[in-house]
Structures are given as C-alpha cells and as structure tokens.
Amino acid sequence: MNPNKALWEKGDFTRIAATMRKSGEDLASRIGVARGMSVLDLGGGDGTTAIPLARTGANVTVIDIAANLVQAGNARAKDEGLPNCMFLEGDASHLSDVPDASFDVTLSIFGAMFAPRPFEVAKEMVRVTKPGGKIMMGNWIPGDPTLVAQLLKISSAYTPPPPEGFISPITWGVENHIIERFEQAGIPKENITFSREPWTFSAPFGPIEFVAVFRNFYGPTMNAFEAAEQSNRSAELQRELEELFTAQNKSGTSDQTVITATYLLVTVKR
Ligand SMILES: C[S@@+](CC[C@H](N)C(=O)[O-])C[C@H]1O[C@@H](n2cnc3c(N)ncnc32)[C@H](O)[C@@H]1O
User: Fold this and answer.
1) Domain limits of the chain?
2) 87 lines ligand 1 (CB under 6 A)
3) Which residues, other chains included, contact 4 with Cβ-Cβ below 8 Å and sequence gap of 6+?
4) For residues 109 and 132, what is the distance between their CA atoms, to the nearest angstrom?
5) What pTM was estimated for this model as a whole?
6) Beta carbon of 52 within 6 Å of any ligand 1 atom
7) pLDDT value for 161
8) Which parts of the chain have pLDDT scores under 50?
9) Domain 3-142+163-202+261-269, CATH homologous superfamily name and number
10) Is 13 in the pocket of ligand 1 (CB under 6 A)?
11) pLDDT reported for residue 128
12) What's residue 30's pLDDT?
C-alpha cells in the first residue's frame, strides 16, 4: 500500500475538518472564484473549501488520495444538492486522467503539501491550469509558533527518521523552495506571491478533547503515538500536546476550543 495513501486513510480527517468549516467558507469567499469557473481542489479532503466554492456556482473537482474522504465529500455534496462538486480519488503528484489546461483555478489547502515528490506536484498543478489562470496553495510554515506547525514538529520528534531522500511536507512553507519548484515547472518568480494568513479551528469541546480527536483520527498524530508507545513515551507526547493545545486555545473557557493557526498562502499566476 502507498504509505502516503495509508497515512490519510488511517484515521478520519472529517473529524478535524468539522472544526474548520468557517475557515474554509471564509477562504472560498475571497479568492475570486465565481459561477461557471472550473476549479480543481487537490487534497481537498471532504470539501472544506470545495463545498463552499461549489455553492458559488463554480464547477469544482476534488482529487484526493484517501478513498474514505472522497466518499465523505461526495456524500456532503449530495446532501447539499451540489452536482457541480465532484470528488475523485487520485494523487496530486500524478494527475494522469486530467488533460492539460483544464481548470481556471487550481487550489490546494494543506493538501498537495503532503504529497511526496514536490517538484512533480508543482509541475502537475501548472500543467492542468489554463494559461491566464491561477494556482493557490495553503501551506503550514516550519518554525511557526502556532498550532499545526508545532503539532507537526512535536509529532516528528517522536517518529522514526523518514527514509533517505524523503522531502518533508513542511518545506512547502518555505518561499525559496516554492519558487524553485514552480520555476522548474516553467513559472517565473515574478508570478508568485505570498501572504501569511490566519486559519481558525473551532470546536464545541475543550482543548484536551481536541488533542484526543487528533490522537484518534489524524493520521500523522496517530503515527506519532504509535511510535511513542514503542518507546514508552506516549504519556510524554500526550502531555506536550495538551500543553500546546491549552496554551493556544483562545476561547476563554476549557470546554470550547478556538485556536487560530498561521499558514502561508501562495498565489501563482499561470
Ligand atoms: C490536512 S488534510 C486537508 C484536507 C482539506 N484540504 C481540508 O482543508 O479540509 C490533507 C489532505 O491531503 C490529502 N492528500 C495527502 N496526500 C495526497 C496526495 N498525494 N494526493 C492527493 N491528496 C493527498 C489527504 O488525503 C487529506 O485529505
């Protein structure tokens, strides 16, 4: 089994996505997507951004590697009566069934960053986007002090070193790497812009329960706990995460979670 696919099918990302609905709607409302446009959402999960984009009347295709999330996304689109939102299984680094220049906008919010072979990912995003169109990526930033960058950093300290040649997903949060990847795909540096943006997680339960959601349903955290158990360090990992989530919680109460994380929004003119 492809380890990248196994990682995301292992848990149930819909449990995390349920805490990001408002952030997805906010982003979808301000990226210039309008009725009739064709949009590709790579690694779109169960439709955090795709469903609100489809509500505008755009024709949205999600390609995601996890079969369970594709199924969940199609069920959400059906429930909402959105035949213009379609979820398909596929790999962002090899979009074999997608013809060149198919989409006005190619988007990937914390999705394609997790695909191996980042140079292939950039090449595929450029290939399937129409000349004059736009590519947008949301990527977590290494060294950033907010939730997800810290969660990924702590988790990696408990997991065995990756195989030789593995390129960390979080390198997609470094501007020079992004420029290099898109330049190799034929995009001049001047066509790439960056901004740092907030992304809020809101849950009707406290930060300790939110840690449990990650521990039980978020593939990278599940793997970190499995590895930590092997070395008898799972209590230590649990404590580190509880401290992180509690410190980041801005709800003002211990039975609600409101955590805002910072991400890098990348916009590429095709
Ligand atoms: C952190 S989740 C984000 C999901 C969604 N973009 C959202 O904001 O709710 C990462 C997503 O990327 C998908 N993914 C990981 N590797 C992928 C790949 N190689 N090709 C396509 N999707 C991938 C996962 O299955 C998962 O849905």
Assistant:
1) 3-142+163-202+261-269
2) no
3) 65, 91, 114, 115, 116
4) 21
5) 0.95
6) no
7) 85
8) none
9) Vaccinia Virus protein VP39 (3.40.50.150)
10) yes
11) 98
12) 94
């960056």: which residue's tokens?
194
DSSP 8-class letter at 29: T
pLDDT tens-digit map of 33-83: 999 999 999 999 999 999 999 999 999 999 999 999 999 999 999 999 999
Which of 65, 76, 106 best tests ligand 1's pocket when mutated (most atoms within 8 Å of CB)? 65
The pair phi, psi for residue 255, each rounded to 5°, is -115, 15
Which atom of ligand 1 lies closest to the CA of 108? 6
pLDDT at 163: 84
* Beta carbons of 241 and 211 less than 8 angstroms apart: yes
User: Does the C-beta of 214 come closer than 6 Å to ligand 1?
Assistant: no
- Using the mean position of ligand 1's atoms as its centre, give its distance from the Cα of residue 136 in Å: 15
Please tell me if the CB atom of residue 110 comes closer than 6 angstroms to any atom of ligand 1: yes
